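Q: Got a minute? One more chain.
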Amino acid sequence: MSNRSRSGDPTDRDHDAPSTDGVTRDDPLSADTAEELRAIADRIDDLAGSLPIGPARHHARQAAMAARTTADGEANPVARRVALGELVTELRTAADEAAATRTQYEFLECLYEDALPVTRDASGAIYG
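A: Always. Here it is, folded:
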């Protein structure tokens, strides 16, 4: 191990340092995007409530929780990035587990028409 100082290391950044576009890395999502994520979480919870207890309901609840974590301005950047990926994965898994039922199609509709466009918007802010 080296005893050198890490203060000048170009790979380390101060978390609150402005990026090249003048926005700090910890800026929360826009209020509109965060609200859309919360609305998607509520919709997923409603869909999950129509499922019998089992894997599909579990994955749907995980997707809703991931959407809320992504929208949480107090969550650290890593947690938000992980949650954003989990939202899509858990929602897709819930649809797969729901089998060939109407609910499966409702989950897929929620995924492709609602969740994916919002996750694209959120990705720019979270990974930017």
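A: Residues 9-25 have pLDDT under 50 and may be disordered.
Q: Perfect, thanks.
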